[in-house]
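Dear all,

This email documents one entry for the complex benchmark we are building for the journal club exercise. For each entry we list the sequence lines for every component of the assembly. Then comes the predicted three-dimensional structure of the complex as a token string, followed by one or two observations. Please use this as the template for your own entries, and keep the labels exactly as they appear.
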Amino acid sequence: QKEVEQNSGPLSVPEGAIASLNCTYSDRGSQSFFWYRQYSGKSPELIMFIYSNGDKEDGRFTAQLNKASQYVSLLIRDSQPSDSATYLCAVNLIQGAQKLVFGQGTRLTINP
Amino acid sequence: GAVVSQHPSWVICKSGTSVKIECRSLDFQATTMFWYRQFPKQSLMLMATSNEGSKATYEQGVEKDKFLINHASLTLSTLTVTSAHPEDSSFYICSAEAGNTDTQYFGPGTRLTVL
């Protein structure tokens, strides 16, 4: 089992709809969870981080964390073509390990 | 805030030469920086973790003598690819951790092409 798993996609969503991206992780002791966006040929850009169970909202983005089920998700409301990118889930699997483990990424395409 | 720069943004070199890539945190101090490599259509691969003032910690399978890392200050880490070969051609990306938050901010990356 991979430490951090994401559906590689591609995920196609019509413009204006909600895009839902999911990520599961293996270590129940994980404390920190991050979502990055990566456009083709560019480096990752931090979108959100979440530490506590529940929802965290920032503009059109909502991160959801469920530690009991070991999953974290990212919702993008009112999807725009500019949201088309690869979304990387990252987890600090072991507290104090000083490194994040990244999922393979989900490629999202927003169709006009 | 939390801006990370890399230099150069791209480099083309002949096989056998060495290439140095700089990573700087511009508006914060980074005790820890990370170096990643990404091949086309693949995910990020962590190469090493660099702590200011100490030796870098390399991931399994990464040759420490080939990829030299120096983290001499809280705002600068360098990666030197020694005796580069065509198979080293890749997108090299650094990141810096802000404080002890586990949050990593990425530089824009350096595209290395070895002829």
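Observations: The first strand of chain A starts at residue 4 and ends at 6. The two ends of chain A are 36 Å apart (CA to CA).
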